[in-house]
Amino acid sequence: MKKHIVISIKSLVKRYPIGNNFFTALKDINLTLNTGEFTGLVGPSGSGKTTLLNVIGGLDSASEGTVSVLDHSLNNTSHNERALLRRKHMGFIFQSYNLLPVYSVYENVELPLILNKVSPLDRQKKVNQAIEWVGLSDKRDSRPNTLSGGQCQRTAIARAIVHQPDLVLADEPTANLDAENSHHIMKILTKLNKEISTSFVFATHDEKIMGYLKRIIHLEDGMINKDEKIKKSK
Description:
The chain is an alpha/beta fold. The chain has one domain: P-loop containing nucleotide triphosphate hydrolases (Rossmann fold), CATH 3.40.50.300. 34% of the residues lie in helices and 30% in strands. It is built from seven helices and ten strands. The chain has helices spanning 49-56, 79-89, 105-115, 120-133, 149-161, 179-196, 207-210, and strands spanning 5-18, 21-34, 38-42, 64-69, 72-73, 90-94, 167-171, 199-204, 215-220, 223-229. The strands form two sheets. The protein has a six-stranded mixed sheet. Strands 2-1-4-5 form a four-stranded antiparallel sheet, with helices on one face. Helix 3 (105-115) runs parallel beside helix 5 (149-161).
């Protein structure tokens, strides 16, 4: 498969105003990610990993530098253009699940396809496939309040990947889960990465995730201090 640049970040600085001063959350970040990478932004709390993930997702903007995601310059796009890019080409997994409580598993997973105006027949096929991927076919009509934490997170993953996005951003996706559920979820995401070449970027300090990553970008005090490719034994 020909490699294609999914994320290109040059000289990124992110500042937040605090009173009459500024707090610099990200300092001179340079980063390139290609199609199909399975990457972790790793570091302690306050290192800047969630901020960087939010900038990549267009949920926050750069103070300085350039950010290009999926051939779109986020420096020169409107709020609506970024929202469209996220809706069509990205998936998001949050540690808090963010499921709609009045919707069933099926309806939660279906929502991105409705927003993208996918036909009912195609929606049914894609939703059933995504629910099967995460092993929740027997829970398709259940509501979130009847599910375990692991099942809620699997529902959130199905929703994130139902439209087979080019890029999935995951912020501490295993933080609320036990070891067994964490490993189960990472195996699902690894399989999807291989099968549909979706690029994944995790923000995490969870040791359980580390063993699955193909690349680890270490952040400290808002700077990248190490970028390592992980060689997997066959």
